[in-house]
Write a structure and sequence with these properties.
With 472 residues, this protein is α/β, with parallel strands linked by helices. The chain has a single domain, classed as Alkaline Phosphatase, subunit A, CATH 3.40.720.10. The chain is built from twelve helices and 16 strands. Strands 1, 2, 5, 6, 7, 8, 9, 10 and 11 form a nine-stranded mixed beta sheet that branches. It has a four-stranded antiparallel beta sheet with strand order 12-13-14-15, with helices on one face. α6 runs parallel beside α8. The termini are far apart. Mean pLDDT is 94; it is low at 1-21.
Length: 472
Amino acid sequence: MQKLSLLLFLILLGTPAFPQEQKRMNIVLIHVDDLGWRDIGVLGSDFYDTPNIDQLASEGVLFTQSYAAAAICSPTRAALLTGKYPARLGITDWIRAKFQGVSTSGEPGEFESFPDKPLLTPKIQGYLPLEELTLAERLKPFGYATLHVGKWHLGEEGYYPTEQGFDLNKGGNDLGQPPSYFDPYLPDQPRKFYEITTLEPRKTGEFLTDREGDEVVSFIKENQDEPFFVHYAPYAVHTPIMGPEDLVEKYSARIPGKQGNPVYAALVESVDRNVGKIMKELDDLGLRDQTLVIFTSDNGGLIGDPLNPITNNAPLRSQKGYPYEGGIRIPTIVSWPGAVLEGAIESTPIISMDWVPTIMEWVSGRDSVEGLDGLSLVPLLTQESGQLADRDLFWHFPHYRGSDVVPHAVVRSRNYKLIVYFDDTPAELYDLKYDPEESVNLIGSRALIASDLAQKLNSWLESSGARLPKSR
């Protein structure tokens, strides 16, 4: 009876009662801000140098159809940490920081009104609720030391990483971007609440990405004798576009290709060289074959002014903030020597919510976690013939953005992608297998397919409890 009670207790706790013999697993999850699908060499950048990231791909699995859970940051970050769709969490737009002096957050049923827009748009959940289980909280019963470094952007004080399962927080607060990338990380003009309050200045002029990398390395050294989870979320490559002087000079002397912004290139390479610094530390400590490394982004690349673009996502259409592939398709690499395939290229569509069930399958020995929207990618990562069950992927943005983004929802089913707008804007249907550039709208010629996808989208919106816009 005592053994049975212990077994039941372990199951309820979420700890495997009879763990299989396996090598220790550390986790380094690198979650870059605004890094576009085309912004790394292994995916075709013709201007940026990313040798360390490319090396990571050669040692692991490169996903060519990896998707962010949203075309903007906060929703994707919430989805990645919880394994749930942003619509289910109520976080479907970026969360405004305190310094901006405005709020789009509210309870379900509350709406924003715009005098020149026909729809009332739902207010978002303005923070990641504490009752939501994050990946860090799921790992704590298994003895993990946990660190968050860099951008958080999931709520103000009281909702920081240390309230969400992380032992340490270096740099995460309500900001969606740094005031400056140079220590002491302050804006040119002082502004109330506009500072990284959770990262003390260290050396005047030090570049923020380098400081973040040092924080990761220090944590790994200090916790090398126990399992650790690092969520390294560099503020790079988000605006303001700044770069280390030596790298800016390097790229200023280079002939541009389709990409050609030397300052942004320096910012990209600052991420790459800190990835290299972290990988070297894992090697030096003999931890590389005990460490799962995931490299991904929170949304597509920001083009900005087309006459002076920040980056170029071609052949993908559009950019951050838009429902097209350039806004939601992202670079993703997974590496773990001896456990994950090496040098593999995987075209199965995956999405941000997949990381919680993937990691928890390896940690707990169970192949599913109840209540999550993602799927474990272990079958794809560990065997040549690995397959995932067919599934549809969804996106929901019931808001206005700028002058040309109206409330919409998206479904990808096999190779077809349907974009439905909540106003009178005509729907769009694309066949991504033959038209990854999304240049030919098939809505008028494949009505049955569009109707089937629309029904799937409507069912998902209802089942996920998505907050919807409404007419005035």
